[in-house]
Design brief:
The structure is a homodimer of 216-residue chains.
Chain A lengths: L11 H4 L2 H13 L4 E2 L1 H8 L3 H8 L6 E2 L3 E3 H12 L5 E6 L3 H8 L1 H5 L2 E8 L8 E2 L2 E5 L3 H7 L4 E4 L3 H13 L4 E4 L12 E4 L2 H13 L6
Parallel strand pairs in A: 4-5, 4-8, 5-7, 8-9, 9-10
Antiparallel strand pairs in A: 1-3, 2-3, 6-7
Helix pairs in contact in A: 2-5, 3-4
Chain A binds a DNA duplex (24 and 24 nucleotides) through helix 4 and strand 2.
Chain lengths: 216, 216
DNA sequence: TAGATTGTTAATCGATTAACAATC
DNA sequence: TAGATTGTTAATCGATTAACAATC
C-alpha cells in the first residue's frame, strides 16, 4: 500500500517554543558547547527533558541514543524549520521610536531579514534615512510593496491606522504582518499575522506582582 | 464549620488572556457599548463564550443572567485584578531607541505607570531628558531604585548586560522586571519577571509563512 | 560491553468545550 | 411571563509527563 505522507499539524504550543530552542542553542554554540542532552537543555531552559524530545520529534529524530544532540546541527535544523534559512524582504511602516528601534536591531539583519524601506506620514521624516534605509511617504507604500516583492510588513503606527495600513499591505500581496500597534489586525486567508501587543506583557507582570502568595 | 477561603491558583493561560479582555473592553467603552454577552465578546475576540465565562468566573461572577456583562464595570474589575487600579514607579535602563519608544508610549502613563528615570552607560545620553524624564548614569541605578521606591525595572540594554542590570535592580529591592533584552533574565524569589524576547514572535511568523498548507 | 540517552507509546494532567439548571 | 444568558458541572480534547525498549 502506497502511503501518502501527510504532514501532521504541529500545535502552536510547540511552535512558540521553537524560537526559544533556537536562541538557547545559539548561545550554546557561542559558548563552544558541541553536544547536549535533552536533560541538560531542559535544565537550562526550564523545560522537562521529555517535553524537549516530544517537541523535536514533531519534526524528526535529530538526536542520537546515548549521545544526545549535536548543538550546531540541531540549531541549524530548527532554523530551517522556522524558515530562517531563507532571506525575507520587509518594510517598516511608522518611523517613530519603535520603528527605528526595530530598524536598528542587528539581530534581524543577521538572520536574513532585509529591511528594504520605511514609511511614515510625517513630512519631517520622509526623505531621511535610518541606517541607510530610506523613509518614504506612506502614500507610496502599496506601490513599493508590489514592485519590490516585499513579503513581511512591520506595523509601528498608532492603533487607529493599523488596520488600514494592513489592508494596503494585503492589497499589494504581502504575505506576513508583524503588528506592534495595540490593536489586533485582521488578516485574509493566506496572510499570516503576529499581533504583538507589548502592553499585555506588562499587565501580566503587574498581575503577578499582586498575586496572593498562597503558601497556605 | 468555619471555612478558610483560600484563593485558588489561576492558570497562566487565563492570566495571559486578561490583558486582552481589558483591551477589548476598553475599545467597547470607547465605542459607547454598555453591555455585552459572552457570546458577542467571544465573536469579537475569537474565543468561545464558554471560555470567557470560565475565565471570568475564576475571579467572581461579574455577569447577570439574561443580560450579560456591564462593559464598564467588567473592564474596571479586570483592571483591578491586573493591578491597574494602583500606580507604579518604574525606571528604564538603556536609553536607546527601544527605551525611548517605551518612554514615549502614552498608554502606560495613562494606566498609572510612572516613569521616574532612565539610565544609560553612554555619556552622550546621560544628562539629557526624554519627555521630561532625566537620563542618569547607570552607576546611579542602585541608589536611585532604593531611594525612590522603584517597583518595576525595564531592561532595554544589550543581552550581555541584561543579567547584571537585573541583579543590581534586585539588590536594591525591585519587585518586577520587564526585560526586552533577547536573553532570559533569572530572578530571585519574590521578584517577578517577564522576558519579552520580541524576535520569537518574528520567527513564529516565518514559521507560519512556510507552514505546509495541509488542505488534504 | 555497559552506560547513556534517544524516540515513542502510554498515563496523567490540565485546559477547553458542551450542557444545562438557575435566574435575571 | 418568556427569552436570554449566566455560573457551574461534566465531558472532551489536547498537552505534558512518565516509562521503557531500542540503540548508539
Amino acid at each position: 500500500m502506497l502511503m501518502q505522507k501527510v504532514s501532521v499539524k504541529v500545535s502552536m504550543a510547540v511552535v512558540r517554543r521553537l524560537p526559544k530552542y533556537y536562541r538557547y542553542l545559539g548561545d550554546l554554540i557561542q559558548d563552544g558547547i558541541t553536544r547536549i542532552s535533552s536533560k541538560e537543555l531542559g535544565k537550562l531552559m526550564g523545560l522537562t527533558a521529555s517535553q524537549i524530545r516530544q517537541d523535536l520529534n514533531c519534526f524528526g529524530g535529530f538526536g542520537q541514543q546515548g549521545y544526545g544532540y549535536n548543538v550546531e546541527e540541531l540549531q541549524k535544523e530548527i532554523g530551517r524549520i522556522l524558515g530562517l534559512n531563507q532571506s525575507y524582504n520587509s518594510v517598516i511602516v511608522g518611523a517613530g521610536n519603535l520603528g527605528q528601534a526595530i530598524a536598528n536591531y542587528e539581530g534581524f539583519r543577521r538572520e536574513g531579514f532585509v529591511l528594504n524601506a520605511m514609511f511614515d506620514v510625517n513630512p519631517r521624516l520622509v526623505g531621511n534615512t535610518i541606517r541607510d534605509i530610506k523613509i518614504y511617504d506612506i502614500l507610496d507604500l502599496g506601490g513599493y510593496i508590489k514592485e519590490n516583492a516585499i513579503q513581511i510588513g512591520i506595523i509601528c503606527v498608532p492603533k487607529e491606522q493599523s488596520q488600514s495600513v494592513a489592508d494596503t499591505m494585503m492589497d499589494n500581496g504581502i504575505k506576513a504582518i508583524w503588528n506592534f500597534a495595540p490593536a489586533d489586525v485582521q488578516v485574509r486567508d493566506n496572510v499570516v499575522i503576529e499581533n504583538v501587543a507589548i502592553s499585555e506583557s506588562l499587565y501580566t507582570l503587574t498581575y503577578l506582582m499582586n498575586e496572593p502568595q498562597l503558601d497556605v
